[in-house]
Inverse folding.
């Protein structure tokens, strides 16, 4: 089995062919890739110096996406149900107000080249029983708006737990996954709608159990299933990964599963009680 990919800037030894200018250029292009390697569609230019729309920009992961996008030199349009106060606004960010469940979103995305959706449903007993349709209706409205605005690239957050993950601890499978059933079903429906969309370049990122920590560049990436021992996912690393997928056209029409090991105190049932249940 192939080992999971960890971010690095290593060159491929198979490309070291002396005197071949074309190969030399290929090696150079690979060497300047960002810290998260991934699949790139041939013939698709990257989105450096372009503008992206970020839905859910005021949330924890959304803020990380905005920050990493600005750092990557992208223009950002932050779209939320409400506008931030003046003191909370960031330089270089355009703020637009829209409700993904109710509004026409084409105007909100006007002038953008790609979309990152960090929409998510916070866990609560009521949301577990009847989650708001952010992943289904909300994402569907975003796709409709994208089509009318002429945008063909989107990256969304799904979850690793929409599929059986062999590497997950048994206690987590028996407690958290069943509690999230209705939310996960919406995520599955969202992924299916992306797969069925014609002429759409999409990425459904499947993070492990999220933890509110900054990026450390140690994210592990694999196709659909989590790498071994990748039980947590820092929101900082998730935000950076999503921006990299857009900017460098990686993992197009794919469901990369991302995560990394953390200290035992962050992976225990006690951590679950403190973070998931809010005890």
């Amino acid at each position: 089995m192939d080992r999971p990919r960890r971010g690095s800037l290593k060159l491929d030894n198979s490309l070291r062919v002396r005197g071949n200018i074309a190969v030399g250029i290929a090696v150079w292009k690979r060497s300047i890739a960002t810290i998260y390697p991934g699949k790139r569609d041939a013939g698709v230019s990257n989105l450096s110096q372009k503008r992206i729309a970020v839905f859910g920009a005021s949330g924890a992961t959304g803020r990380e996406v905005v920050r990493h996008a600005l750092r990557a030199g992208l223009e950002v349009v932050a779209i939320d149900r409400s506008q931030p106060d003046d003191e909370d606004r960031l330089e270089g960010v355009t703020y637009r107000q829209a409700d993904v469940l109710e509004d026409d979103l084409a105007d909100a995305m006007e002038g953008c080249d790609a979309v990152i959706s960090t929409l998510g449903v916070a866990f609560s007993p009521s949301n577990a029983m009847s989650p708001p349709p952010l992943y289904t209706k909300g994402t569907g409205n975003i796709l409709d708006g994208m089509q009318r605005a002429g945008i063909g690239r989107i990256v969304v957050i799904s979850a690793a737990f929409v599929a059986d993950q062999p590497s997950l601890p048994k206690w987590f499978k028996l407690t958290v996954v069943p509690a999230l059933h209705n939310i996960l079903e919406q995520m599955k429906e969202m992924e299916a709608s992306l797969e069925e969309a014609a002429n759409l370049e999409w990425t459904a990122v499947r993070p492990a159990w999220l933890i509110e920590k900054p990026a450390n560049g140690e994210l592990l990436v694999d196709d659909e299933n989590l790498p071994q021992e990748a039980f947590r996912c820092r929101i900082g690393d998730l935000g950076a990964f999503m921006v990299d997928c857009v900017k460098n056209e990686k993992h197009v029409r794919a469901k990369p599963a991302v995560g990394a090991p953390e200290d035992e105190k962050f992976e225990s049932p006690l951590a679950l009680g403190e973070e998931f249940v809010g005890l």
